[in-house]
Design a protein that fits this description.
The chain is of the alpha/beta class. It has helices at residues 6-13, 29-36, 69-76, 86-93, 115-118, 138-145; strands at residues 19-22, 43-52, 55-62, 65-67, 111-114, 123-126, 132-136, 148-150, 153-155. The strands form two sheets. It has a seven-stranded mixed β-sheet. Strands 4-9 form a two-stranded antiparallel sheet.
């Protein structure tokens, strides 16, 4: 586990009240949330979405929600978006899949946060390495990243539904 990542270096260089959490890497979002000490809805995933060739946005999605693709396309004003493969996502951000975060990201990509992110008392977002998270108030996360806030997700279906 890296002791220092570009995300942690960016966090140290900024003026943001946040807490770094180190935990044993997890195999899925519910397990990661438990190891970070937060509910699943407070775990914030950073997803790379391609608008066009070499044109990406970072989308912040709570762990208990999923991207609503028609809403996202409408918000972006495009008829089509896609998810890049792991190699393309790493080339765009500098992070491998599972560690992607807007903090210290190589590309200066716009960030879109679902409306629910700003409402979180604690948002736990990746820290740029496996087993590293950054916990902070959702509103502080949105403000610091200068994220656009939009209604772009829907709740995940309950297991067995």
């Amino acid at each position: 586990m890296n002791s220092q990542t570009p995300a942690l270096a960016a966090l140290e260089a900024g003026d943001l009240e946040a807490h770094v959490v180190r935990y044993a890497p997890a195999g899925n979002a519910p397990e990661a949330a438990a190891r970070r000490g937060v509910p699943l809805g407070a775990l914030v995933k950073t997803l790379v979405v391609r608008r066009g060739a070499g044109d990406y946005v970072l989308v912040l999605v709570p762990g208990d929600r999923t991207i609503d693709w028609p809403k996202l396309r409408s918000h972006l004003g495009v008829s089509r978006v896609s998810m890049p493969d792991a190699d393309e996502a790493k080339a765009a951000t500098g992070y491998e899949r599972g560690t992607i975060t807007p903090f210290g990201c190589e590309g200066d990509w716009p960030v879109i946060a679902d409306t629910t992110v700003a409402e979180l008392p604690v948002a736990s977002i990746g820290g740029g390495g496996h087993g590293i998270a950054i916990n902070l108030a959702g509103v502080d996360l949105v403000d610091y990243l200068q994220a656009t806030v939009a209604d772009i997700t829907t709740p995940l279906a309950p297991p067995g539904a």
